[in-house]
Design a protein that fits this description.
It is a single chain. With about 160 residues, this protein is α+β, with helices and mostly antiparallel strands. The chain folds into 2 domains: about 40 residues; about 110 residues, Superoxide dismutase, copper/zinc binding domain (Immunoglobulin-like), CATH 2.60.40. An 8-stranded antiparallel β-sheet has the order 5-4-9-10-1-2-3-8. A hairpin with a 2-residue loop joins strand 6 and strand 7. The termini are far apart. The relative contact order is 0.18. Keywords: Signal. This is 4050_t:CDS:1.
Length: about 160
């Protein structure tokens, strides 16, 4: 009789475990749904991308190249790209990089971030990426990515566009 009780107790415990597991599965929400409900709707979506294409129309003194801007946090954009032309002078401190708004007024100086990551290989630059705080993709779409050489001479201007 003792063996019978032992088997019965084991069966009951197994049944209770299976029922509790089924209950947990049925009542749980998918991870995605829980995350969306917890964080609500964000104005900026991580992973959004925009780009700027520099075209020099055959003038090697003007910048050519492509850049992407990717939202990596709510207030940080990752800039990734390379200049193919427009950098005959290998002295990096002779160049400045800015984002200007649609009316061509300065919005953000990103010179420090780019200088920390790029190398000049005349007539262009190395490929690079840098993170810029205080920007978001929604704000910079329709703005301009500007490259200036010393004395504020613009050597490149590209409109930032949504992908």
């Amino acid at each position: 009789m003792s063996a019978y009780k032992s088997t019965l107790v084991k069966s009951l415990i197994s049944a209770l475990l299976i029922l509790s597991l089924c209950s947990a599965i049925v009542t749980s929400k998918p991870v995605f749904e829980r995350d969306v409900l917890k964080r609500g709707l964000d104005k900026r979506y991580l992973g959004e991308v925009c780009y700027a294409d520099f075209e020099n129309d055959g003038d090697v003194k003007k910048c050519s190249g492509r850049f992407t801007f990717t939202q990596i946090t709510e207030t940080t954009v990752r800039v990734l790209g390379q200049f193919n032309t427009g950098f005959p002078d290998a002295v990096l401190s002779n160049y400045e990089f800015h984002v200007h708004d649609a009316k061509d007024s300065p919005l953000k100086d990103i010179t420090k971030e780019i200088r920390a990551k790029v190398a000049i290989n005349p007539p262009g630059t190395s490929a690079f990426q840098c993170d810029v705080d205080g920007l978001d993709v929604d704000t910079i779409v329709g703005c301009y990515f500007i490259v200036k050489k010393r004395d504020n001479v613009v050597i490149g201007k590209a409109k930032i566009q949504k992908v």
